[in-house]
Specification:
globular, Dihydrodipicolinate Reductase, domain 2, 2 domains, single chain, 15 strands, 8 helices, UDP-n-acetylglucosamine1-carboxyvinyl-transferase, Chain, 328 residues
């Protein structure tokens, strides 16, 4: 049985998500203890419990210790089957984090899969749907991932009610050497649901001010939604950033946050942004052959992911000088 100490690295939910995904792919039982030991309130929260139960459903696995507040679980994954899956988080927990946990598993299914998740599509501490579909998925395809996504309904904190669907084909992963890309057109998405139109207008105006020296386009979308909310996502190639509207935050502040974070990544001039560097690492570790790419900074999430992936896969993962990541 595989064993992982949940206090590894930053000791957060990333350890759990990565370890469970790998257990499914490797088809080995796993014990995870000291879950979220690095947090003020250790143990499983509702969003982490969703990951456990979703992967249990996808593999028909046996799960023990899956309860709110639990600091230890054991999981025995079953065979990864193709087909249609649907999962309701029950809160505004992130749809994209669940899709990222499920994707490496579904790539190894016996047949094509579709996964529909109900929850939050634009929530704090997780990729917005647009970042997932326009930055993460295209980059993952460079490792051989065959997958696509649809936004069916937007969902925001605290009510959630959003829906997103992930379609996946069985895929053979291969190593990739990601190089820095030439500057391209910047895409900006303003997502507005059940809020006054002037919010989007003000955000568009602020984006135009912040990106005036660049080639960019801004689109406003008002998708069906399960709750009121607002988000700005900005991307170009493998660089992306986002910001969420919330009570007391001006529309201008939302756009400034997203633009500032994006321009910081562009200035770093790396092959991938700091969040994407972490998100791609599991594909590099599971792929045949070597992989390499650089990023603007090594985040705690990245360092934690590298430690867990190295332990469970046996791959040599090097976080080298000059912000380069090597998987040998």
């Amino acid at each position: 049985m595989l064993e992982i100490d949940g206090s590894t690295g930053e000791g957060g939910g990333q350890v759990l998500r990565t370890a469970l995904s790998l257990a499914c792919v490797l088809q080995k039982p796993i014990r995870i203890f000291n879950i979220r030991a690095g947090r003020d309130k250790p143990g499983l929260k509702a969003q982490h419990l969703s990951v456990c139960r979703l992967l249990g459903e996808v593999t028909g696995g046996a799960l023990h210790g899956d309860a709110i507040g639990s600091t230890e679980i054991t999981f025995e994954p079953g065979k990864i089957m193709g087909g249609k899956y649907s999962f309701d988080i029950g809160t505004a927990g992130s749809c994209t984090l669940l899709m990222q946990a499920a994707l490496p598993v579904l790539l190894h299914a016996s047949a094509p899969c579709s996964l529909r998740i109900i929850g939050g599509t634009h929530v704090r501490g997780a990729p917005t749907y647009e970042y997932f579909s326009e930055v993460f998925l295209p980059a993952a395809r460079e490792f051989g991932v065959k997958a696509g996504a649809k936004l069916l309904k937007a969902g925001f904190y605290p009510k959630g009610g959003g829906e997103a669907e992930l379609s996946v084909e069985p895929s053979a992963l291969h190593g990739a050497e990601l190089k820095r890309q030439a500057a391209g057109r910047i895409s900006c998405s303003v997502t507005l649901c059940r809020l006054p139109p002037h919010v989007a207008e003000r955000e568009r105006k602020k984006i135009a001010e912040q990106l005036s020296a660049h080639d960019f386009e801004v689109k406003t979308q008002e998708p069906p939604s399960g709750s009121a909310g607002n988000a700005v996502t900005i991307w170009s190639g493998r660089h992306g950033a986002s910001a969420l509207g919330e009570a007391g935050k001006t529309a201008e502040k939302v756009s400034s946050e997203a633009c500032g974070a994006f321009l910081s990544e562009e200035k770093a001039g790396a092959a991938v942004d700091a969040h994407l560097a972490d998100q791609l690492l599991i594909y590099a570790a599971l792929a045949k052959g070597k992989s390499s790419y650089d990023t603007g900074q090594f985040t705690p999430h990245l360092k934690t992911n590298a430690a867990v992936l190295s332990k469970l896969t046996g791959r040599n993962i090097i976080l080298a000088a000059e912000r380069e990541i090597l998987v040998e």
